[in-house]
Amino acid sequence: MSSQASRDGTARARVRRHRWRLLSGLLVGAIVQLQVAAAAPELRFLTTEYPPYSSATLERGGAMEWVLRAALEPRGYVVHIQAVPWARVSREIDQGQVDGVMLLWPTDVTELGLLPTQPVFVSQLGFFVRRAHWRAEGMNWQQLKGQTVGVVRGYNYPDQLRQTGAVLDEAISDLNNLKKLAAKRFDYVALERATGEHQLAQSAGGELARTIVWQAPALVSIPLTFGIVPGRPGAAALLSELEQALQQLRGQRAFKSIVEKFHVTAAGGTHEPSPTQGVKPPQTTARPIRPQ
Q: Parallel, antiparallel, or unpaired for β 188-192 and 290-291?
């Protein structure tokens, strides 16, 4: 009996030691995970709904969000991106809970007092026309004088648009303007190239895309950047790391895939339009097409 009791006691001791080792291992793993989570800096970026650059309906949030995550997440950052109306961005920054803003033009960076990154994409602002009126040789802006151009009520448009002498006809949305163009109620629609092409592809099975096309060259070309909020903890380090990551990302196939997938123009690429006729060359201080 004593021999059996001894064996039973030994077995129970082994079970207890095994359970203790298992519990210790789980505890150590949990502590490590908590330490990693605590060490990973969390960032909050704001954006606006502006497909294909930014949209909750697009894969990985669109071109700009995809680039931001590809740049920062491999470096250990946890990135939270929230879409808000443009008028709310400055209020959110003033409340001190925002680390950065994405999808910015130079004028936005200045007005919001942000630290800009290098340009990521180039936003081409110009015109869509009916295919029957498309010109292979490109557009001469002097031909716009007296022509009806569809614009959206409340948007900011470049001064160059008014310099053409076109008659601006306001509507409630870009898609509404494209439909009116197809119905021959406008001669042109003023719109950002990638955004317009995205809307055409998404509309009614692509029916509008068979009728309407982008007319090169662009009226103005404006760089799109990220902006870091100065004064936030680690802002200078974040800007430096983001700049380094963007520079490295440019040479990778992943970045080229983003450009091709969303049909956007990379900054410094070969598809930026030449200066147009009849108006001054594009300036980076031009007002973008953006809701107020």
A: unpaired
